[in-house]
Write a structure and sequence with these properties.
It comes from Siminovitchia terrae (Bacillus terrae). By secondary structure, the chain is an all-alpha fold. It is built from six helices and no strands. The chain has two domains: 1-97; 100-170, no CATH class.
């Protein structure tokens, strides 16, 4: 071989060596990027697991709160039913105790009242226990005159809830 061939061969070997070094560097970069992506993927999986755990615990808390709410609602309904039954029984007992006035007797009473008493809503219902009108009629009369539930309850010495129930059962 001649000196020129050796130069060309040396140059080619040098170029091949540089290409190998560049390829090794490229492989190293690819390996580093792959490791970086795998690390990111692992972190994302951890974040996903944590968020799933947080969501599961939140759903459990919501479920527990809903169960507590339902139990409270059931208790309040039972209490309302008992209260309603007691008030209804009280109303029935009061109606049985009071002697109902006949329609003719009521008409005569209304005609006999002076005009002033018809204008004063509080004077239409007497406070005496001997009043022949049933409680339901008294409540109806006062409600027609525009009194509020509170005013009616105060006037008849009854509970506000009882008056509200009487008005609902009309």
């Amino acid at each position: 071989m001649t000196g020129g061939d050796e130069k060309v061969t040396g140059t080619l070997v040098f170029i091949l060596f540089l290409i190998n070094v560049l390829l090794a560097f490229a492989l190293l970069l690819l390996y580093m990027r792959q490791n970086k992506l795998m690390g990111i993927e692992k972190r994302q999986q951890l974040v996903l697991k944590e968020s799933e755990q947080v969501m599961a615990s939140l759903l459990e808390e919501i479920k527990d709160e809903n169960e507590k709410l339902l139990s409270r609602l059931m208790e309040s309904r039972e209490t309302e039913d008992k209260t309603t039954a007691a008030i209804a029984a009280n109303i029935i007992m009061e109606e049985k105790k009071l002697v109902p006035a006949t329609e003719e007797h009521q008409d005569v009473q209304e005609e006999a009242r002076p005009l002033e008493s018809k204008q004063d809503p509080l004077s239409d219902v007497s406070d005496d226990a001997t009043d022949p009108q049933p409680l339901r009629e008294q409540v109806k009369l006062l409600a027609e005159q525009g009194l509020t539930v509170t005013d009616i309850a105060r006037k008849l010495n009854k509970g506000k809830t009882e008056i509200e129930l009487l008005m609902k059962f009309r």
